[in-house]
Structure formats: C-alpha cells, structure tokens
Amino acid sequence: MSKTMTGAEMVVQALQDQGVTHLFGYPGGAVLPIYDALFHQTKIQHVLVRHEQGAAHAAEGYARSSGKVGCLLVTSGPGATNAVTGLTDALMDSIPVVCITGQVPTHLIGSDAFQECDTVGITRHCTKHNYLVRKIEDLPRILHEAFYIARSGRPGPVVIDIPKDVQFASGIYQPPKNIQHKTYHPQIKGDLAKIKQALAMMAKAKKPIFYTGGGVINAGPAASTLLRELAAQTGFPVTSTLMGLGAYPATGRNWLGMLGMHGSYEANNAMHDCDLMIAVGARFDDRITGRLDAFAPYSKKIHIDIDPSSINKNVAVDLAIVGDCAHVLEDMVRLWRSESLSADKKSLADWWSQIDRWRARKSFAYRKSDKTIKPQYAVERLYELTKGRKTLITTEVGQHQMWAAQHFHFEEPNRWMTSGGLGTMGYGLPAAIGAQLANRDALVVDIAGEASILMNIQELSTAKQYRCPVKIFILNNEYMGMVRQWQELLHGGRYSSSYSEALPDFVKLAEAYGLKGMRCSNPADLDAAIQEMIDSPEGVVFDCIVDKAENCLPMIPSGKAHNEMILPDADEDIGNVIDDKGKMLV
Amino acid sequence: MNAQTPAALSPYSSSAGKASRTETHTLSVLVDNEPGVLARVVGLFSGRGYNIESLTVAEVAHAQALSRITIVTTGAPETIEQISHQLERIVPIHKVTDLSLLDGFLQRELAMIKVRGKGEARTEALRLGEAFRARVIDATTESFIFELTGAPKKIDDFVELMRPIGLVEVARTGVAAITRGPQGM
Ligand SMILES: Cc1ncc(C[n+]2csc(CCOP(=O)(O)OP(=O)(O)O)c2C)c(N)n1
Ligand SMILES: [Mg+2]
C-alpha cells in the first residue's frame, strides 16, 4: 500500500516492513527526525548503545545469532566515523548489516558544515554497497534495496546516508515488493555438471577432507544439516575455519577440530596430506593456509562459494562451483544417493587411522595446575558447566579467543560469534548484547580478555538498561597475551607495552554499572563460581585470574606450513622457531 | 599506479616461487551512470593494488543511464581474472568483459600534440603529420597542434617522432575499445 509520509517515517516504516525488531543506535542532530518517528511506534525496539562502534557490533551479534539482517542508526560526522570499525568487521566476516546514517542537509553537503563528513566516501571501502539519498523519491527503493543487498549473495554491510532535508521531505512510500534489482543477481544454484564432477572426484578420493567456513553458517541452518548428511554419507573428515564452527557438531564422528594457525594437529596435517580438499564457504585466508607454496601440496581442490572473486584468489583450485552452499550441498547429498556413489572405503579407513595417530598427539593439551587457573581449564569448565543449554558464545580478540575456539565445543550453527577477518578487540561485549536481544532464552557469554573488554566497556550500561543478563567471562592474564606471545616468539621476550598496567578492579567496575561482579583465582573454587555466574539472573562480569605466561598452542608459526606446527610440549624453544622472513608477516 | 609491491616475495603470496607472466588486458565495464560509480572502480584498483594503464568513461545510453568504462590494466593472468571478479562485485556494475580474451577487438585513442618549431623543423613536422594522417587543428607561425586518432602504439610512435622536432605537450583521451563483428558485449 503506497502512502504519503515523511522521509523519517519512511525509514521507520521500511524497517518494520523488513522485519526489523531491534535497532541499535545513538541519536544526534542529523537523525532527530528519525528518532521522532521512532517515538511514535512500538514495533521496533530502539536499543541505545553507548558508542556507535557498539551499535555496529551489536547489530552483527544480532545478525549472526538470528540469521536476520542487523540494523543500526547513527548520526552524521562522528556518529558515522565511530561506526566504521564495526562496518569493516561486518564486511570482512560477511555479516548482513544495514546502517542508516544521518547527513547534513543536501544544500550544505561539501561546505564543511558542522558534523559533516563524506560518509559514502569513507565507507565505500568498508561496505558491500552504500548510498547517499539525494531525493525523497529514491528513499523507499533504496531502503528496500539495502536490505536485499545486505542479505543476498555473500552478505555484508550496507550504508544509507540520509540528509536531514530528505528526512523532513514528504513523498510516497512504496512497500517492499519482490524487488528485481537492476544489476545484483548472485548465482544461487550450482552448475549440475560441475557438481557431478565433484562427486566423481570424491568417490575416487583416498585422503579427502571437507574444509568448511563461515559461508556454511551464512547459508542458513539448512546448509549445516546438509553438510552433516554429506559427511555421514561419505565418511569424510571435516574441519572448519574459526568462522565456521558449529556447522558440523564438535561431537560428530568426522570432526577434526578447527584448522589454521591455532587449529588442531590432526586438522592441519590432514589438510597438508589430503589428496582431495572440498572447500565449502571458506576463503583460503592466510590464517588458514599458512605458507602458500607448501599448502596442501598433494591435493586436488574443489571450491564451493557464492562469491566468484573468492575462487582462485589466494589458492588456485581444480574445480570451482559458484553457488549458495545450501543449494550446492543439497544437490550433492541428493546426487550422491541417487547415483549410488560410494567412497573408497579401504583407503578411507587407512586415512582415518593416520588421522587417529595425529589426534593421539593431543595438540590442545596443556599442563594442568592446582595453584593457578589455566585459561584453557577455565574455558573447559565453562563448556562443561553450560553443556546441554542453549549457550551463545562471543569473544574479544587475543589468546582467549583462540582458547575459546579450541576448548568450547559447538554443536549448532549461529552459537559462536567472533571477529575473525578483522580481529576487532571490543567486539565481544556489544555482540553479546545483540545476540542476547535476538535470543532472550539463551545463556550468552562473552569470553573476554582484560585488555579487549576495556575497548567497549561502556556497553555494560546498555546491558543494564535493556536487562541483558550477558556474562562477561574475562580470562585476566594481565597481559595483552597474544601480543606478549608474539613478542616472546619474535622479539626476544621484550614485552614492549603489552603489560596491562593500571587495570580497573573489574568487580567494582561491574558494580558501578549496576551489574554483578565476581572474581576467582583458585582452580578449586572455579566450578562453583562459574555455576553462580550461570545461575545469576543479572549481567555478570567475572574476573577470572589466570596464568599470566601461558602461550596459545599449538601454533603454525608465521611463514610455516601446516605440517610444521609448534606443539604444546615444544613450549621451551618458542623464541627460535620463526625465521627472518616469517617475522615480516603478521 | 604501481602494484608490483615486494609482497610478491612473501610466503603468504600466491605468486611466491612462481614467475607469472605479466599481460596487458583491456576490460570493458558497463555501469549505471550514478554518482560515485567511478570512485568505486578506481578505489577498487588502488585498494587492492591493481594497475591502471588507462581508464576512460562516458555515458553510452542516456535513456538507461548507462556508462561504459574502458580500463587497460597489466598483471598476471590470474590477477586479471581477479580484477574482473572484483569488479563484478560492485553493485552498480552490469557487466565486465575482458576484451583481450575475445577473438578480436579494436582500440582507439585520441591525442592532441603541440609542437613548436620554425623553418626546417616546421616542414618536417607537417610532413610526418601527413604520413600519420594527423590533422592540424591549430597553427601559429611557430607552432602546430595535431589531432591524431589511432591505437595507442601509433600515438606513442608519433609523439616520439615529434620529440626531437620540438614537442611541447600531449593530451590523450585514453583508450576506448569495442569487439569486432556483429555481437555486442
Ligand atoms: C582494536 C585492536 N587493536 C589492537 C589489536 C592487536 N591485538 C591483538 S590481540 C591483542 C591483545 C589482546 O589482549 P587481551 O584482550 O587481554 O587478550 P589475551 O590475548 O590476553 O587473551 C592486541 C592488542 C586488535 N586485534 N584490535
Ligand atoms: Mg589478556
């Protein structure tokens, strides 16, 4: 139904029509008309964050945990620039987000007006697409297009910059029809001939492996179900990137654990030795491949991805199937069955016994202690004590993030939210709030580091205001642990500025924000403390004092290949492993 | 614009160890003629470190507001394939065609070349201009401006001939290109 309304009203109407339930935002002069329109309605809950970066990460957490588009609203100038880190994060991890920014009135654009910035210019490189709305007639179409682009194909963030005069202007609103976008039509179905070719390669493989990524999660829960089916049908081992955890269950028979820089020994060695790699919704990132000229040297590679530019970008593949993972996996499962294909069982059995020998190295093992809490132990206990409930985990960035990935095990997709591509410290708390608002029934825990959490600590106010009982589980090692570890590896243990000096008292800090604060430093008390945290109906900041010097292992040192991992028992000579060429890398 | 960074030596670089041939390709890109679209294209090249040898743009279908961008770029074949795919990701882009992969195409460029000289030099310039079918579009007693259309190589050659005679400056449009035969892009 078309109706006359103001630009600001159109924004709110379009968000409602697009099914937005929560809008993360922060007001300012250039978005006041939109805030006024929000005032007159109840369908969308506006969530007032305390910093626009928080709004972007909260929208990401909301999107990742719900599969819907996350939405934020910020003012011009500093509001928009503050959101840039979150937009870049969403771009790197392919998270569907729509960000509405206010802009100075059209006649002032380019005059260095108060709180003017070139938002479309600044965000061009960190969005999938962006718009400056110059006239009211374009607004309804752009609003709906933005949602279409954000969620279609390879998802990503879209910015709509709306000058204040356009918000006040009135025009005719158009509801979202089945939009036929002029140019943007990502390929959804995979080429059947190529899919059949892939299956033939799979039936012949002696050492196959599924290498899955965030694309499987983005393709919706059906893709995860289909991946499980295909793994069961073929009996092939499955590993996943950081972003893809949960697509295949960690308790599943074919699971090898995460691969990559801090992945498991069995996953990385299987990647190195495989003769057929089936990459599904993964992008051959440098954290995953290690040294490229030694990457899976004996393998044929099949790559399934919705983004043609991901194919052959870092690694040349033998067979590329462009399409949505869910659709391609569906065809694969169906054809594997209907063509009565079967794997080479004899070779597969040998492959699995090789994998079991690697697994026997127990690469995630660590030295237990009854004096200090080992960070791995803390994550392990958190996992054990939250098992069986709907638990969503977010993280900050650093060692704790990798320990969370290694020791917290995911059974379902959309339960794990972490900043993978950009590695943004400060992601976890706002993302937890977004995830909690999308999943009121879930236990949401941000596994944090004491340095990262301070980057968006102000969002504790948001958690309090909206009664989000998120649990901030800080693995407090009093170091920027990941930086300290690299300094130990590369710079002779000269810990330049990586000590977390002058930390706040996190218990008092929690209390200052009106939340519950807890501290635990004794392994013997840990279970009871974690249980108390879980049982608390409030938001909790849990200051878990852990071993300060623990390194995150195993590790593929920079510039090395998958089969050159440092294992936990080689902890001693960690300072000599990386050569000069490796030191240049990040 | 130069993208041959030392990163080619990095162990993370896909070209490490491989000596990939550098090729020159001409890409035709059909885009919606909307504000910012050129910035998106140019930004992609600078952001990802691709080379631009030449870039031209003009509206080609007013009713549909379509512009055609012609880009000449150099790189390894796999880099150029990446460039095409990365361009295709830009939302207002309709179509990307790598003309160099097709059977045949024509490219033309227009140049205006200012030459200064008297006496012998002047006649020599005129004589060469005729040989290249350059038109004289401005003349004073001590200068000429030639207008020359042709493939970039022809213009390069002409400019080199003018240099010793008294080349003052050159303005070039950059390359426009189109496939041979009856088919459109
Ligand atoms: C915004 C931002 N700045 C800097 C970095 C670089 N960085 C990566 S990990 C890290 C240290 C994180 O320390 P902490 O949160 O205490 O986690 P830990 O490694 O100790 O578990 C830093 C500074 C980053 N990833 N993000
Ligand atoms: Mg720390």
Question: What does this 3D model show about the protein?
Answer:
The complex is a heterodimer of chains A (586) and B (185). Chain A is of the alpha/beta class and 586 residues long. In chain A, 37% of the residues lie in helices and 17% in strands. Chain A contains 22 helices and 20 strands. In chain A, strand 4, helix 4 and strand 5 form a beta-alpha-beta unit. In chain A, helix 1 runs parallel beside helix 6, helix 3 packs parallel to helix 4 and helix 15 packs across helix 21. The relative contact order of chain A is 0.11. The model of chain A has no long low-confidence stretch (mean pLDDT 96). Chain B folds into two domains: 100 residues, Alpha-Beta Plaits (2-Layer Sandwich); 72 residues, 2-Layer Sandwich (Alpha-Beta Plaits). In chain B, 28% of the residues lie in helices and 38% in strands. In chain B, the strands form two sheets. In chain B, strands 5, 6, 7, 8 and 9 form a five-stranded antiparallel sheet that branches. In chain B, strands 2-3-1-4 form a four-stranded antiparallel sheet, with helices on one face. In chain B, helix 3 packs antiparallel against helix 4. The structure holds thiamine diphosphate and magnesium ion (MG).
